[in-house]
Every structure is written in structure tokens, then in C-alpha cells.
Specification:
Strand order of the largest sheet: 2-1-3-4-7
Number of strands: 18
Number of domains: 4
Shape: globular
Strand content: 15-25%
Oligomer: single chain
Radius of gyration: 23 Å
CATH topology of the largest domain: Rossmann fold
């Protein structure tokens, strides 16, 4: 019987020579079967090659082409190999997680319907088909699932609004926001490349819930592998009858950060320039082509199948306070063990950085962590015991956002990072509203003056006033949240300016 060897084929693993490693393995004089999978998310070990044994999968990583020749000792697996990590499931990084949404990523061939179904795939959709729209939505409400894209709006309430909008014959849409543009985030890409059927299933359930017949996945243009994988997966799901008339398509995003904002995304999907819309009306009432539209991000929709399959209470049993279920966190920046983890809400930021992340890769003290992308606050080490939940982070002036954490050690110049926040906004603003369009440019100028000592005290006051104007007056989060990193640096790292 052939020995099964699993080699990741996601973008990160491929950038680290996973394809060359797979070719080298195939050339070995052994009876082996190569299975390409997604990544488990242990990126400091990629490419992480896993060999099936009687006791489970044994991992070797970070595997190199030169190290492949020593993988086997005669006819037996070389357990003394210098890259052997032991049983993958027992690695502390994985064993301490609670993978509800990302549980199949790294385990299966992403385009194998059989493997997907063997691990519980489409059970949620099957149950949803036996339920009314109202029953599906009540299940979502009871689960406590909130939008994982950053706004944290209750998913069930959004779906209820779309269901109630319009007349019985009104065309409705399901739109997946897969334009993952925040710094330090990659979970959407990992899901789309490693378990595309879970996203497709989640969107099909959403369509049943609100009586929609058309869906779009608006995928980041910089993710060509994810786009190809999704298109193939949709074709396979259609052929197998899982979509049952739900017309689902992939659309390449416009390459603009602002198109991650839901109304700018809808404008782009309609073939227009990606610019923020005035609200009201909300997209749930008048969204794509003026019709009621569900707009959820990848992780939100990928969380739906397990909720329907296992029940709302099983999901709601995880988490803390009003933040229920699990949170996918991406560790990036100056971190010893970068990668993806999925843990219940309420896990402390310190545990995530130290237990999972292992501290900085440089070995120096952590100076700050930016959470929630380029518009997120910089968190001071004195705040690291804060639990990861929406309300607790709001209480310290921070946000969880899409779950990305970017770590900086004590050599980082946070004054430069404050300037970058304004500079980034100036470059990425859609230009529709004055506070964002003009305020970000003025912000760069003020920070430059402060850093050079030009009337520093007066310009600090002006910068704070400018930030408040942007928060109060901007049309969307692009301008409204750009001040957050600046204000957090002024509060906790004032000497950096």
C-alpha cells in the first residue's frame, strides 16, 4: 500500500518551495502518493510535509529539497530526521486551538468533494434544506455569530433584514467580501485555497435563508490561486448538485483597499469606480443593483456550515460575553511563530503572543502590537492581558477587526508608523468626503512638523483636533478609523513623535 504524503499547496507554502519539495518527493524510489493540501497555518514550519502512519500524520518541516532524500531510512520512515516534528496533531501550537471554521484546512485536498464530505462537509446545507428561512435565521441569531470582517454586526439580524426586504419576487443577492487587504491578514486566502467548499456551502445556506438566487465572491485580485481554486470548486459543486440552482460566480477585485468597504465593493461589482455610498439606505435594503443584499466576509460565511450542522448552542458555548464562538487570529510581523490560530473569544492577547507566537523573532521585547489592520490602534504591553473580545478591545480604544496582529519589537519607530497611517489613508481614500481626502494629507504634514520640532506642542493639539474631525465627519471607516493608530501612539508612545 502506498504511503500517503501530504504537501501544502497554498500560496505561502509555494513561495517557500513546496512545489519543488513535492517534485523531489515524487522522485524518491518509494511507493508513495502525494496529496496536495492547504496549509495548517504553522508558517514558521512551511513547507510542513506530513507522512501518514498508523499513529497519525508525522510532520517534517520546514522541509527542503535537499532534506527529502533522508525522509526514509530504508523502507521505514526516518523518525530521527533532523526536521521531524513528531505527530502534527500533538504539536502544542495546534493542540491548544479550537478549530471550528478552519478545521479541514491542511487536512484535505481542497478540490476533493469526497474528502470534504467525509469530514462533515455539506451536513449544514442538508439540514438547512429541511428548515424554513425563519428557522435558519433563528439558528444564526442563537449562535451569536457576529461579522468577522471587523464591524462585528450580528449575522442573523443582517440576514433577517434582507429576508424582510422587498416583495416575495424581489431579486436578492449574497455577496462575499473576499477583498482581504488588511496588513497581517491571510485567513480568507487560506480558507479559499485550502477549503473552498466551506465558503460555497455557507453562501448556499445564506441564499436559502433570505431567498436569494445569485451570489458573488469578490476576491482580492492579488489572490490568483484562490480565484482559480474557487472557480474549480464551484464547478464541482454544481456538477454534484449541491448548489441546486444557486448561481454563484467569482469576481476579481479592483485592487483598491477602499473596495473592502462594503458599499464601495458593491459599486465595483456593478462595474463602477469603487467609491463609498451614502447610508441609509443600508445594503441589506438597497445593495447590489439596488436590491436587498447580504454582504458578509469569508470567515463569517465559512462559520455558517458548522453552526447549522452542530447546532447554535454548540457554537455559542465557545467565547465570552457577547463575543461568542471562535476567532481566527493571524500572527505576523516580528513574531517567532507566525501563522494562523483559531481560539475561543476571551483568550488573552498575552497568551496569543507568548504561548502561540513565542515572542519576537528578534528575541527583543515586544514594543507594541497593531491589531485590526492599518487602521487599528497600537496596543501597549501594559494592555496585553486584555481578553480578545470585541467589547474588551473597545474598552482600551482598540479593535479586533479581521483578527490580524502585527508585532513590533523595541527597535520600531512608532512615529514613522503614525505618519504611515495618514500616508496610507491619503493614498487609498476614495476621495468622496473631505475629512478623509484632505484630513489625511494634512495629517502627514502635521506629523512631519512635530517630528522636526516645528511648533511641536501646537501641532500636537492641531493633530488631535484633526483626528477628531476625521472620526466624526468621514463617510466610512477609511477616514473614521485612520486616526486610531495615530491617537494610540500619541497616548502610549508620545515620545515617538
Amino acid at each position: 500500500m502506498s504511503t500517503q504524503i501530504f504537501v501544502p499547496a497554498d500560496s505561502t507554502a509555494r513561495s517557500l518551495d513546496a512545489d519543488a519539495v513535492a517534485d523531489a518527493l515524487q522522485s524518491l524510489d518509494h511507493d508513495i502518493q502525494i496529496i496536495r493540501t492547504g496549509s495548517r497555518g504553522l508558517y514558521w514550519l512551511e513547507p510542513l510535509v506530513e507522512v501518514a502512519t498508523e499513529n497519525g500524520r508525522v510532520g517534517f518541516g520546514p522541509m527542503t529539497v535537499d532534506a527529502v532524500s533522508d525522509l526514509f531510512d530504508g523502507d521505514k520512515l526516518n523518525a530521527q530526521h533532523h526536521l521531524c516534528q513528531g505527530l502534527v496533531e500533538e504539536l502544542p501550537y495546534l493542540a491548544a486551538q479550537q478549530r471550528l471554521t478552519t478545521g479541514r484546512v491542511g487536512l484535505i485536498d481542497p478540490l476533493s468533494l469526497q474528502q470534504y464530505c467525509e469530514l462533515g462537509g455539506f451536513e449544514g446545507l442538508q439540514r438547512a434544506r429541511d428548515m424554513s428561512s425563519t428557522e435558519i435565521i433563528e439558528t444564526m441569531k442563537a449562535s451569536g455569530l457576529r461579522g468577522r470582517g471587523g464591524a462585528a454586526f450580528p449575522t442573523g439580524i443582517k440576514w433577517q433584514t434582507v429576508l424582510d426586504a422587498g416583495d416575495p419576487g424581489t431579486q436578492k443577492y449574497i455577496v462575499c467580501n473576499a477583498d482581504e487587504g488588511d496588513s497581517g491578514t491571510f485567513v480568507d486566502r487560506m480558507l479559499m485555497e485550502g477549503d473552498p467548499f466551506v465558503l460555497i456551502e455557507g453562501m448556499a445556506i445564506a441564499a436559502l435563508a433570505v431567498n436569494a438566487s445569485i451570489g458573488f465572491i469578490y476576491c482580492r485580485a492579488e489572490y490568483p490561486l484562490a480565484i482559480r481554486t474557487l472557480e474549480q470548486a464551484i464547478e464541482l459543486a454544481n456538477e454534484a448538485g449541491w448548489l441546486d440552482g444557486f448561481d454563484l460566480k467569482v469576481r476579481k477585485a479592483a485592487g483598491a483597499y477602499i473596495c473592502g468597504e462594503e458599499t464601495a465593493l458593491l459599486e465595483s461589482l456593478e462595474g463602477k469606480r469603487g467609491m463609498v455610498r451614502y447610508r441609509p439606505p443600508l445594503p441589506a435594503i438597497e445593495g447590489l443593483f439596488g436590491q436587498p443584499t447580504v454582504v458578509n466576509n469569508v470567515v463569517s460565511l465559512a462559520s455558517v456550515p458548522s453552526i447549522l450542522a452542530q447546532g447554535a448552542q454548540a457554537y455559542a458555548a465557545q467565547g465570552s460575553g457577547r463575543s461568542l464562538g471562535t476567532l481566527t487570529i493571524q500572527l505576523a510581523g516580528n513574531i517567532a511563530r507566525p501563522g494562523l490560530i483559531e481560539v475561543p473569544f476571551g483568550t488573552s492577547l498575552r497568551d496569543i503572543l507568548e504561548v502561540f507566537g513565542g515572542g519576537t523573532s528578534s528575541g527583543r521585547p515586544i514594543k507594541a502590537v497593531q491589531a485590526g489592520g492599518p487602521l487599528g490602534a497600537y496596543i501597549h504591553p501594559a494592555q496585553f492581558d486584555t481578553p480578545m473580545d470585541y467589547e474588551a478591545f473597545k474598552g482600551i480604544g482598540a479593535m479586533i477587526g479581521h483578527g490580524g496582529l502585527v508585532v513590533f519589537d523595541d527597535t520600531a519607530d512608532l512615529g514613522d508608523m503614525a505618519r504611515f497611517a495618514m500616508e496610507f489613508c491619503a493614498a487609498e481614500s476614495c476621495g468622496k468626503c473631505t475629512p478623509c481626502r484632505i484630513g489625511s494629507v494634512r495629517g502627514v504634514e502635521l506629523i512631519d512638523r512635530i517630528k522636526t520640532g516645528d511648533a511641536a506642542d501646537e501641532n500636537r493639539l492641531l493633530l488631535k483636533d484633526l483626528c477628531q474631525t476625521m472620526i466624526d465627519g468621514s463617510l466610512c471607516a477609511m477616514g473614521g478609523m485612520t486616526p486610531f493608530p495615530v491617537l494610540s501612539i500619541m497616548e502610549h508612545f508620545e515620545e515617538e513623535l
